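Input sequence (776 aa), recorded before submission:
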Amino acid sequence: MKKTIDVSKTSKSIRNQFERLRGICYLDHAGSALYADSQIDAVMFDLKTNLYGNPHSSGQPSTACEEIIDRVRFKILKHFNTNTEKYSVIFTSGATGALKTVAECFAWHDKCHQSNEHASDCQWQGSAFAYTQDNHTSVLGMRELAENVQDVCLTRIQISDAPNTDLSVCPKSGNSLFVYPAQSNFSGYKYPLSWIRKCQNGALDRYTENSGSKWYVLLDAASHVSTDYLDLSEYSPDFVAVSFYKMFGYPTGIGALLVHNRTGANALNRKRYYGGGTVEITLARNRHHVPKTTTLHEWFEDGTVDFLSIIAIDHGLNTLRELAGPMQSVSQRVFELAAYLYAKMCTARHGNQKPLFRIYTDSDYTCREFQGGVVNFNVLRANGEHVGYNEVRNVADNNGIVLRVGCFCNPGACQTHLNLSDQQIQNNHQKTGHVCGDDIDLIDGTPTGSVRVSFGYQSCVSDADTMYNIMVKYFWQSDVVRPVDFRMLTTLNDNSNNLRVSRIFVYPIKSCGSVEVNQWPLESYGLLYDRVWTVLSEDGVCMTQLKEPKLCLIQPEIDLFKGIMTLTYAGNSDRSPMKIYLESQQLDIKRAGKTCTGDLVDGLDCGDEVASWLSFNLDMPGLRLIRCTNRSPSKSNKFVLNSKVLAANQCQYLMTTESTVNWLRRELKDDNTDLDLDSVLFRFRSNILVAGDSPVNSEVNWTEVTMGGIKFQVHSVCVRCKMICIDQSNSLKNHKPLSILDQHKWNGKSVFGIYLNRVEETLAGYIRVGQPVSFV
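Predicted structure, token format:
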């Protein structure tokens, strides 16, 4: 009977190594492994008790360091069941650095020698660069350095169907390179390592214009070796790329290229650049150098290697062996966890029996030989529509779950599984501006990426259950939700709907509490003193509730007659209120901060006393309160800001209607979340609330608004983020409001409220509660 790993629990000794998680469910092991406490302790102890010098220098510290580096090379090869006779270890900046090294130095023709011929002078006939469609972006980047070489992108089926060939069939006229991942970082599918020998024997000649090429194989093993065993005594790729933080979390920024000494080394003879430590001699006045050739790594490791990080690799390998045990056991554990979660998600159904998840997989999760510890999916609503991956990420964030969303730097796999054409992807970029890593998760209802959870040796079944239960809790629906069709709403151009200003709010400090008023003067930048101040973090960034939700607990009060703003902090009776003069003459320290969009905000520092008060109450060192004087939009800001807007996000005013707020209250109540009007309203931080008989969200169709005879132009709708999940009375989070909006999108966006700019901002004016409101 086959022995399996018990995934119901992880040994206490392992869990104790990651106490810093403090209840966080970490499910992004494919993004980065977690370093263990004992691992870091060992590194720090080593560095504190031993003296290490530059290995290129002389003396005992340098000699000791050089010996350890050699030992680490040996241990790396031993981890992959090989030795220095078969492979050489070249340290790089990571797996991407290893791929780049091969791309830069691979000789596409045997006549190309690094010493006396340029790549452009070579005859490239018979050479090809082949790769699987499921590959990291760093592999696609290699194409740019494979000039005048046939480019071949292959599917898994094409490679599997390629016939085995005999090496002696024909003479070799050129060098070709095939790159593929041992494990997909998108779906966790494990590609056959038997492909290595098959492709080296010329199986891919059938897909190239010229047969008879000498084939080399580069195995991208970064994803595979993080949770599985790679036996280089059984398989012999010419090159292997790995990253160590993928294996044991620390150190970052260092990886390795493993080069087969007999085959791969011969093909890396197109290296041009050389740095310190890589040459036997070089002349300054004449173009002459002799490369080091004693060992392969001496010629390829330009400059001083990151020797302290290499020392840390030693401890990482030790910790991985001690805590995780054999990598075969790790592979079995993460596979069973992924298969367990996959089975649960396959059977998840809404109340109307429609599936809750769409899973993107290349296997059926029945065999760890073909599947790693990854589950990739999108969430579906009861009507079959996709939930944007950002909404899923927000839910995960609010519930202490760490996962990854997007395309994971694997555009080929993403395109295949999401069934996106090349034209769609190009249109998404040209027409909507969608780029890798942005927040555009749905375009015309079609997802641009997905959600990925991945397991490590520290994971246990409770991690899978936590993720699954949260997804079901927030996205399960008893039946189809009928979205409001905002385009069908009628907007009246007269006052028969009896609209009027019902409430007015001023937010003196960006992201802090509001001041509710019955009437208020207007300034060129908006309501008087609205978003005039901002809190700067220690690193000079304008603070928002997205970074520190407790900002909402800072409650301002303004006395216009006395010219004073008083700040109090909710729940802190031990700290007296802070008073600030609205027009202080002592603000003479110039400072600048950056907003979340990259804009620069200039301002005057309000002094040490209020800075200390803020830092104490928010428990964050180095905070400063700045009175804004100017804002300079960055080139990357897609919004055209009014020149007088200070710390506000986009425009001078933000308006919502009572009908829309009450609609959302009803939707929340139907979703078993009963919030009063103020609790809902305050989350959206509007300046002006309009009462009357307007249809729900009809304001999104307005183009111009008049209040009390003052004319405003509608700038845009307000696209909402997870900040509306924060209860402004206690800073606690509840994702339901954003979830409801995501089910009733307008033009594919979750919107609530409209931005206004005043048309004649130079004229004096007041906004008063009760003023009539009209619109066109």
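Checked by second reader. Confidence is low (pLDDT under 50) at residues 1-5, 112-123, 490-496.
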